[in-house]
Amino acid sequence: MHTPGAKEISPQVRVAVALFLAVRSSNDKVQRGCIKAAAERFKISRRKVSAIWSNRDSFEALVAPRKPRACRRTQLSPAESADKIHEAPMSARQTLRCLASATGFPKTTLMRHLAAGVFRRATTRVKPKLTDVHMARRFAFALGHVERAFGGRDYRMHHMYDYVHVDEKWFNLYMVSTRYYLTKDEFAPHQACPNRRFIGKVMFLAAVARPRYDAKRKTYFDGKNRNLAGCRVRACSTMLGK
């Protein structure tokens, strides 16, 4: 049995080993220490020397070239695998599990193809598509809250303590950031909208103001009149720090 990764012995070396041992044998028995001497002389292991001596009467074992070992053929080449991945819809290429279901490849095969560069992982994010009108409105809003201190020359932003903002809390209909698995010659699908705040969503309102100290209650008000949902990991109204 051939050991994977073992060095192949040429027919010339096998014949030389057999002759080396035949000269040092008597009644088909090799003299003591000859196998070790043959291994050191021909730079092969003693196990292979013993195998050559055992098969010395077989022409195929000594002279005939070794037959190529049968290897398991890969069912699809990298190019064919890339074409099959390319045929899968983008909606089925966001996770390896979905891609495996769409292409019929095992997940482990896809992981090997990913490591080999047959396809790649890409992340696409929705970009804000601002028009000139949008940018002008934002600039005008910022300028509307710039004021000059009384008797001074410097400008500063308004303190915003007398403002209460209405904040929309929503669930987006699709994710802002989406991951796809693409072949080498593919590009991530472009997603754009007038503004990421305008993605179709289900929303509700909550009043938000600048945090301040409440002298009457002698505590700090975080500025949120919230209507936020809780979860099993974090209770509602839990303050988060960065």
Task: Give a brief description.
The chain is an alpha+beta fold and 242 residues long. It is 31% helix and 22% strand.
Describe this structure in words.
By secondary structure, the chain is an alpha+beta fold. Among the domains are: 52 residues; 75 residues, no CATH class. α1 runs antiparallel to α2 and α2 crosses α3. The two termini are 63 Å apart.
Furnish the topology, listing elements before pairings.
Elements lengths: L10 H13 L1 E2 L2 E2 L3 H9 L3 H9 L4 H4 L15 H10 L8 H8 L3 H10 L2 E7 L1 E2 L3 H12 L2 E3 L6 E3 L6 E9 L4 E7 L8 E2 L7 E9 L2 E3 L4 E3 L2 E2 L17
Helix pairs in contact: 1-2, 2-3
Order of helices and strands: HEEHHHHHHEEHEEEEEEEEE
Annotation, overall tally of beta strands: 13
What separation lies between the terminal Cα atoms?
Answer: 63 Å
Spatial ordering of strands, largest sheet: 7-10-13
Radius of gyration computed on alpha carbons: 38 Å
Structural class: alpha+beta
The helix tally amounts to: 8
The coarse overall form would be elongated
Task: Indicate the low-confidence ranges by residue numbers.
Answer: none
InterPro entries: RNaseH_sf
GO molecular function: nucleic acid binding
Organism: Phytophthora nicotianae
Protein name: Transposase Tc1-like domain-containing protein
